[in-house]
Design a protein that fits this description.
With 241 residues, the chain is of the alpha+beta class. The chain has 9 helices and 7 strands.
Length: 241
């Protein structure tokens, strides 16, 4: 590798595949997404990957870069090169690989549904808008985790997901906790029943890989701890039967 080029090893294939190396021109302020896009546009148009906004908003460009899940549009090459100066790019872990760097997000979003991640209110379009004070303790807790955009980085970083395929994962459980603290939502007990099972919040080992890798700087481990407390209290009251 010269100073003018960068050696990139990119995963090719599906679950069973291999790394293929490419030589890519070095550029100032170059991101990993820039590198992958260059390969697809100038070297190998068959390379499959996913992206949309390119400016750190949508999260769809998440990939595994030198062993860690990251948004590739926000990841500058100079900050992630290993000791050999090589860049390894692979699909997100814990999700089925469709082709190359593209993964199937179905399981990830199905687990949001299993965790009762949908809002359930009691009012209709004919009622007045609910007024929720931004200073209320519940609203503050909900607001702390509401910015999750479902990019899958925390899910990919989670070792419990790797060990236990039934585990709902940090994003789904974080969503459940935000809804538990939404004063307008009425599905609290059903939601606690959904997250109290073998693959629910109690399966979390509190390793905080999700916290370390979350690009939005959220704390899914803290949200899961809240669910652990809530499910324990509900169980003592006999509400989870």
């Amino acid at each position: 590798m010269s100073r003018e080029t960068l050696t990139v090893a990119v995963w090719r294939g599906a679950e069973k595949g291999r790394y293929q190396k490419y030589e890519v021109p070095r550029q100032e302020s170059q991101t990993v997404l820039d590198v992958i896009t260059y390969i697809q546009r100038h070297i190998d148009p068959s390379l499959s990957y996913r992206f949309a906004c390119r400016v750190g908003v949508c999260g769809s460009c998440a990939m595994t870069v030198n062993g860690s899940p990251r948004w590739t549009c926000r990841t500058h090459v100079d900050k992630v090169l290993d000791d050999t100066g090589q860049l390894d790019v692979a699909p997100l872990r814990n999700l089925e690989v469709i082709k190359d760097l593209s993964v199937d997000m179905t399981d990830f979003f199905d687990k949001w549904a299993k965790a009762k991640g949908q809002f359930h209110g009691s009012e209709t379009r004919h009622d007045d808008f609910s007024a929720v004070s931004p200073d209320s303790p519940q609203r503050k807790v909900a607001s702390a985790g509401i910015e999750c955009i479902g990019c899958g980085v925390c899910y990919s970083a989670c070792d419990v997901v790797a060990w236990n395929k039934d585990y709902l994962g940090p994003a789904a459980l974080n969503r459940a906790w935000t809804l538990m603290n939404d004063e307008r939502d009425v599905a609290g007990i059903d939601r606690l029943k959904a997250v109290a099972g073998a693959g629910g919040c109690q399966a979390c080992h509190s390793q905080q890989g999700c916290v370390e890798r979350c690009v939005k700087h959220l704390n899914p481990t803290g949200a899961i701890a809240g669910l652990k407390r809530a499910t324990a209290i509900a169980a003592l009251k006999g509400q989870l039967k």
